[in-house]
Amino acid sequence: MRIQINTDGSIQDRERLAAHFQGVLESALARFQDRLTHVEVHLSSETGDRTGRADKRCMIEARLHGCQPTAVTHQAAALDQAVDGAVDKLKRSLESVLGREQRNR
User: Fold this and answer.
1) First CA to last CA distance, the chain
2) pLDDT tens sequence across 16-32
3) 42 with 59: CB under 8 angstroms?
4) Ramachandran sector of residue 35 (left: φ over 0; alpha: ψ -120 to 50; beta: rest)
5) How far is the C-alpha of 87 from the C-alpha of 71, rounded, in Å?
6) What is the per-residue DSSP string for 4-42?
7) pLDDT attached to residue 77
8) What three-state secondary structure class fits 60?
9) CB contact at 8 A, 37 and 48
10) Angle at CA 34, nearest 5°, toward 20 and 65?
11) How confident is the prediction for the chain on average, in pLDDT?
12) How many CB atoms lie within 10 A of CB 37?
C-alpha cells in the first residue's frame, strides 16, 4: 500500500505532519493493506492562515485492487480531527465495499 500525502500552502510544518499522518493511516488501514494499492490524502485549510470553525479539510482517496476508487472528505477545527474523521469514514466505506463484494460472490 502506497500512501501519498499532499498539503496546500497554508499548512505549517508539512513534513512532520505528513510523517505523523502516514503512521496514523498505516495503523488505521492495516486491516485492508492486502487489498489497498494506493491511498492519496489532501490536507487543506479552507480559510488559509486565519483560524475558523471547521476550516481544516482532509480528503482521502483509496484504491482497492479490482474496485473503483473510494473517496471521503471531513472538515474540522484542527487537522488531526479532520484526518481522524476522514479515516473513520474511509474505514466504514471500505468495509461496505468489501462486504458487497463478498455478498456478490
Assistant:
1) 24
2) 888 999 999 999 999 99
3) yes
4) alpha
5) 10
6) EEEE-TT-SSHHHHHHHHHHHHHHHTGGGTTTEEEEEEE
7) 92
8) strand
9) no
10) 105
11) 90
12) 13
Q: Are 58 and 84 in contact (CB under 8 A)?
A: no
Residue type, 18: A
* φ/ψ of residue 48, rounded to 5: 70, -130
With 70 as the cut, is the pLDDT of residue 49 above it?
no
The overall pTM is greater than 0.85: yes
Measured CA to CA, the distance from residue 86 to residue 68 in angstroms comes to: 18
Q: Which residue has the cell 496514523?
A: 24
Amino acid at 14: R
Domains along the chain with CATH numbers: 2-103 (3.30.160.100)
Contacts of 13 (CB under 8 A, 6+ apart): none
Which three cell numbers mark 37? 494499492
Neighbours of 94 (CB within 10 A): 20
Residue 101 has a pLDDT of 81
**Rounded to an integer, what distance in angstroms lies between the CA atom of residue 68 and that of residue 104?**
16
